[in-house]
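User: Hi! I have a protein structure encoded as tokens and I'd like to know what sequence might fold into it. I'm fairly new to this, so please keep things simple.
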């Protein structure tokens, strides 16, 4: 069963990412140690897509947490 977007967002915040906002259902998370922002699109209760989970995992690894 896929995780929910709210779980991915919680993981990003726990790793020190900051929500810089976005347009519509998009949220951009930045971290001082990551070159590119992570964009999460969708409602918090939606199922996460595999590419979103992969992007969050890779960004957290890049940040060193």
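Assistant: Happy to help. Inverse folding works backwards from shape to sequence: for each of the 65 positions I chose a residue that suits the local structure. Here it is:
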């Amino acid at each position: 069963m896929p995780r929910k977007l709210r779980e991915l967002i919680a993981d990003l915040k726990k790793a020190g990412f900051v929500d810089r906002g976005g347009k519509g259902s998009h949220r951009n998370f930045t971290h001082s140690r990551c070159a590119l922002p992570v964009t999460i699109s969708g409602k918090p209760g939606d199922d996460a897509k595999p590419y979103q989970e992969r992007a969050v995992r890779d960004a957290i690894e890049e940040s060193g947490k």
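A useful reference point when you look it over: The beta strands are 18-19, 26-30, 38-41. Feel free to ask if any position seems puzzling.
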